[in-house]
Amino acid sequence: MEQNQAERRVRVTLDASGHPYEVMACDPALADTVDFCAHYGIPASNSVNTILVKAKTGGERFVVCVLLADSKLDVNRTVRKRLGARRVSFASAEETQRLTGMVLGGVTPVGVPEGLPIWVDARVMHVEYVILGAGVREAKIKVAPALFDSLPGVEIVEGLAIELAQT
User: Fold this and answer.
1) Domain ranges in the chain?
2) Domain 3-143 belongs in CATH node 3.90.960.10
3) Run of H or E residues at 141
4) Structural contact between residues 64 and 154, judged by C-beta atoms closer than 8 angstroms
């Protein structure tokens, strides 16, 4: 799957959602969350990480997990139990690109292929806006979290992520 196909899918999905959004240009070298937030002055509490996780036991299954950048995914409890697997892991960059058509630093829950479940940590729904990947490393999307209510395959999950201690 070609990368600009992923970017087109993201834009088509956003346009069809009816939710207003803003496309923000991004230096591809700064697309990773920590670098992006530091360079562009975006709080981690408004930036979203989108992570593909796979079950390693009980048959290969994948889920897209969405969480605020000021938290970490509860992989070994919440994700593992919800997937019904004894072992889970983060999908590799290659698996992520093969399944979503997106490269790390640009992965977004918007426009993922049909049938791929999307779990959104409940904390995401309580912020004013979120910054998401745009399907490519050269852009980000600013949108209200209410968007997730209109995306197919989305389930809001309490406790999907654990807030990191503030230093």
Assistant:
1) 3-143
2) yes
3) strand 139-143
4) no
